[in-house]
Write a structure and sequence with these properties.
Strand content: 5-15%
Order of helices and strands: HHEHEHEEHH
Pfam families: Glutaredoxin
Subcellular location: Cytoplasm
Keywords: Cytoplasm, Redox-active center
Family: Belongs to the glutaredoxin family. CC-type subfamily.
CATH superfamily of one domain: Glutaredoxin
Helix content: 40-55%
Protein name: Oxidoreductase
CATH topology of one domain: Glutaredoxin
Shape: globular
Largest sheet: 4 strands, mixed
């Protein structure tokens, strides 16, 4: 089932996994984050209370998309995102929200807004099978 929803692991599950060994938790967490990105047509990573997230969600809702949002609450997720995107290109300045479309990094708020203004956003979302109309 493509683009299935996936809830982040509960704190109890993380605590239980940490007792069994940190290396297995680290590998499981990384694979879960990659799975989360690959299973959602559009996913947004943002910090809680981010005003740009609100603006981004309003824009995407206006074009007919209700994106999956993952709230960043610790630095480990940022490190995993660095690894997934390619840490060599990381300049140390993460600008949230970060948007993945079709399992690939699309960009931040500015890139989504530029695609909307140019008229390419709906086309990109249709190609990623996030929109059907």
């Amino acid at each position: 089932m493509p683009y299935a929803t996936w809830p982040p692991p509960s704190s109890a599950a993380i605590d239980a996994a940490s007792n069994s060994g940190s290396s297995s938790l680290e590998m499981k967490e990384k694979s879960n984050l990659e799975k989360l990105i690959s299973e959602n047509a559009v996913i947004v990573f943002a910090s809680k209370g981010c005003c740009m997230l609100h603006a981004l969600r309003c824009l995407l809702l206006r074009v007919g998309l209700n994106p999956t949002v993952y709230h960043i609450d610790d630095d480990e997720v940022v490190e995993d995102l660095e690894r997934i995107i390619g840490g060599d290109n990381y300049d140390g300045l993460w600008k949230f929200p970060v948007v993945f479309v079709g399992g690939k990094l699309f960009g931040g708020f500015e890139k989504v807004m530029m695609a909307h203004i140019s008229g390419d956003l709906v086309k990109i979302l249709k190609e990623a099978r996030a929109l059907w109309l």
